[in-house]
Amino acid sequence: MKSTLLPRFSLRLALIVLTGAAFFFVLVGKGLGGWAWAIGVTVGAASILAALATHFLFAAAFTGLGRVLGADEIVARTSQGGLVRQSGEATQPDVQPGGEAAP
Fold first, then answer.
1. 50 and 62 fall within a common domain
2. Residue 94 lies in a domain
3. Is 93 helix (H, G, I), strand (E, B) or coil?
4. Are residues 19 and 64 in the same domain?
5. What is the rounded distance in angstroms from the CA atom of residue 8 to the CA atom of residue 10?
């Protein structure tokens, strides 16, 4: 399957987004005209968009930081007293050849 640069959207979705944007900018125009309720709705919508953008930026920054620094190795004891080491995706028990857990 060929990878595309932009995802495929339907005409219905494009028209819904266009209608929503038109409605939003009508509210912005009413707010600039001095209507108090339209100013409130516009500020509320802008606040939601700013919060979503802030959350996205922090998530992207910490994901990138985590990939640069790498994952820590996690060591845990099982209920039988053995050790389990976990790093990244792989989990392996740390057991000696005699069947006992390694110190």
1. yes
2. yes
3. strand
4. yes
5. 7
How long, in residues, is the chain?
A: 103
Task: Give the residue among 90, 55, 92, 58 at the shortest CA–CA distance from 71.
Answer: 90
Asked if the structure places residue 5 within a domain, the reply is no
Beta strands at 90-94 and 83-87: parallel, antiparallel or unpaired: antiparallel
- Based on the domain organization, do 38 and 62 belong to the same domain? yes
Show pLDDT as tens, one digit a residue, over the chain (103 residues).
566 667 777 889 999 999 999 999 999 999 999 899 999 999 999 999 999 999 999 999 999 998 888 877 777 788 887 877 776 555 555 555 555 555 5
Residue 43: Cβ-neighbour burial (10 angstroms; 0-12, 13-18, 19+)? exposed
